[in-house]
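Readers outside the structure-tokenisation community will struggle with the description of the input data as it stands. What matters is that the chain and its backbone geometry are given together, residue for residue. For illustration, here is how one protein appears when written out as sequence plus structure tokens:

…
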Amino acid sequence: MHLKSRIFYLVIGYVIFILFFNNILFYVTTKETLVGNVEEQSVHAASNLRNSIDQYKTSVKYVEDMVGQQLRLAAIAAKERLSPRAEHVTNDELEQISKELGVSHITLLQEQGDDIIGVRSSDSKEIGMSTKKWGYWYTAFLQLLESGNVTIPEGQKLPHYWSGPIEHADTDPSKIDKWGYYYDGETDYIINPYVEDIQIKQYDRLAGPDLIMKKMIEDNPGILEMTGFNYNHFGKPLKVSKSQSGQYFVSLYDRPIPFGTYMYEDRERDIDNVRQALERNEPVTYTTVVLGKKVIKSYIPVPSDADNQQLDYPYVIGVVFDYHMIRDVLEEQITTMAARIGFLTILSLVLLYFVFRMIGRNKDEAVRVTQEAYIDEVNDMFTTIRGQRHDFLNHVQTIHTFLQLKKYDDLHRYTGELIGDIRQTNDIIQIGHPAIAAIVQSKLVTAMDKKIDFRHEFAPFGSLNLGVKSVDIVKIIGNLVDNAFDEVTRLPVHERWVELRGWYNAGNLFISVRNPGRVLDEEERRKIFMPGYSTKNSGDHSGIGLAVTKERVGSYKGTITVESDIGQGTTFTVCMPLQRFGI
């Protein structure tokens, strides 16, 4: 197969490979980006849910406090109508007052031994009720009886009054009530009005976390489920309490799942990821299969800054995202990617075809121009040599005539000129490098036209492989010599000279060009190799000759320096290492 064709097919294969690799990379990156977007979307949804829950909690707290204040007013009003001694109060009396004050029931609590017991109540289940095992509630009752003020962090605290958080009733866990406790020291009992918290339940149905989540899932079709995990209790044995009526219940604050649904259960991993999310305080995401569906599960931590983390507990919001949403996008991406590869491949083939044609034409044209210039210069050199041989007989006849006429001074002068001309041509031939010999011969002709004394000295290169392309050596020498010629043409004719030298030493090829003229200052020496910069008239020179020379020298890992002083003139010295070319 033709070398050009092989290169063409290699480039095509490379382009196809790059396109394929680029699209595969794009596919993988897109997949990772989509998964990352799912996590961001989950975090965003969880953040919105958290903000809504925080607002909900603030609203609930406000409503609770309002109910608590109403219960305090009810307790004060009941106190004004009751005997200060519990033994003189009847249950029927409490029932009547409860109806009039708009509360569900009123119970009177009295300290008896090491317990505080319900001694009178409009609710028969409350009579004989013990509170000794109620934890911080019992502590609040003791503080209320002792000083009239409660100092524990839990609950609502007002003068001579304390109200605990909404909770299941110990006498009937099927009910969730709100209680208030009042004691100002004027009675031998604590007045305890309470209501079934219908207002809170109604608000929860209208604006609670479950309604918020339902709305979010409707607005985000990819979200299958959202779950609230109670960090204190999820994954731990269920904390079950037993009421005084013998019924079992779980406190509102001990529920493992306080809100949301938990159908996409991967329990062991869920427990571990809930713990990791909150302990690291960063989202955790992984892909799994649950209920026969591939899903992405994210866990977003919601730490608690409250002092009482039993009531205001830390929790984690779990978001389950349907993976098929990503799969659909990826399948569309694969189709688009295949079409893109096909189109770009065809386009690349067409473009490469025309590029190769243009490169081939430009290359052939460059070779032709270079060869023509090179051949012209070699032809000029050999024309000079042939001319010298053609004139040999004329020279011999002239010498013979001078001898016959005994004009020895004229003969001496004539033979001196003849020998100088022959020596100059011989010096060129002795260079041993056709390209260098040709460019030197060409510059000799130019020097004669410009009345410049062009001096040249080259070490014989013979068959030495310089490791530099002939085209490049011609460019380097030609640009340096032309630059020197331009500089000395400003001088009087008798001061015009340019010296070209070439030698090799210690594995390096050296070329120097020296000429008289004005001294270059430091600023000019710094700018002289910059494209477009010239010390000549801008209309006559492009200012790129020395820039091209420096670029060509640099391509061979060489250096070019310039020195300029009054005594030695200006000297450009090129040094190029030959060892990298096998020398």
